Amino acid sequence: MNPKSDPFCSFGIIADVQYADVDERYNFHKTRLRNYRKSLVLLERAVSNWTSEGVDSVLQLGDLIDGLNTKHNASESALAAVVDVLNIFPGPVYHTWGNHELYNFKQELLRTSELFSGNLPQCACPEGETYYSFNIHRKLKVAVLNCYEISMLGLTNDSSEYKIAEGILSENNPNQSWNNPDGLHGTNRRFVKLNGMVSDSQLKWLKEVLQQAVNRLENVIVMGHVPVCEHSTGNMFLCLNHSEIMEVLTTYSSCVMCYFAGHFHEGGSCVDSSGILHVTFPGTVESSEPDAYATAYLYRDRFVIHGKGSYPSFQTKLRYSIEDS
Fold it and tell me: Nearest CA to 191 among 156, 159, 151?
């Protein structure tokens, strides 16, 4: 799937870097090794390659630093380390937040940090909110979700969003630890603390963005840290209200081309019944390859994702072709 002609634009994609200056160790289930220091090297290689290739921008799908940083009082230094690497890239980097950012920082603080791209002048962000949209090309819009708008992560215990999430987990997960899905089956395994959900107002905003895209004949990529299609991820790693988001996406499948996520480190993909490509990108922190990133290319009638190392490649048709002029 190597590009054979000049694309209209290109951008990098990376997920779950989860950098921490700590020794490698296995994940919670003792099934996958995480190399926290190597992940920074992989990020550096990705940025270097994107810069030399001249890609226009980067999509960062969340979990840029690991929650282990909190135990070592290293949240600020870890964030500074990854931001320093990303700042080498000459173009804009568009972020979404994952659960590991929220183990380190409150959402209110992240809104004023370099990890909130809704502050960039080219982004359209509702006032006071944490989701936004922007155009990579006049025919390609990206809508960025906050999949933890309602959650028990990065919010104060007395906030309404925290209390709603607490009630949902209390009702659906009987385990002593709400990070434990034991005894839950199928998609009910998503009722764990490491997931969150979007609000009704965020869903309304998404519908408005997608309707505008239909009116303007724009192709759309929706991205969020947490997957929403059960066939592209493990059941434990779904957004709490994934079915409501899926309903919106499929309703507007005339413009929605892809949904990008991270969170599930094994990665996964599927094309849903409406033709939308769902890609859950693998966790860079668990890559055993010398590279772990992807670069996407927009052509006249197709969209190509070229994976490097542990990242897979994909291709899909555009909803609206781009004139050659």
Answer: 151
